Amino acid sequence: MIALLLLLLSLFIVVPLVELALLLKLADLTDWQFTLVLVVVTGLVGTLLARAQGLRTYQRIRQELSAGRLPSDSLLDAVMILLASGLLLTPGILTDLFGLSLLIPIFRRYYRQQIARWFRNRFTVHAFTDSSSPPDRSQVVDSYVVRGTSGENQLPAPDDGADPPHESGFN
Prior knowledge:
This protein is mostly helical.
């Protein structure tokens, strides 16, 4: 819990202070108009790039779903593009550089590999299969309720004219 608090503290206090110091240093080295134009242009360019990459990723997700595949890489790309959009709208040099890197597919591939490595090192996946059926086939069993004539198998008749209760619990 303390580690999470320190992480949030650094993200919301330290990073903006570093960004402000870098922007002030850039304004000191050049002039304030150049720094202002740089911040606005990176925001605009980032928005256009994020929109183009987002649409491309959306189309890829739809194609993968239509083909019956789980679009895990594409969904992770979509999250990274969304994060890039937020970073590019935030004024700053470091956030703009990181945001732009998230919009470049080769960098996203690298980030995806790092994220996958992080998950593999921290989580273990156990798969349990039924040994009576082949592992590559699934089995679907369909069932329904048969009302018999004997009293033990018969559902009570509704007395208010409503539909009889479903034995499965689903309506």
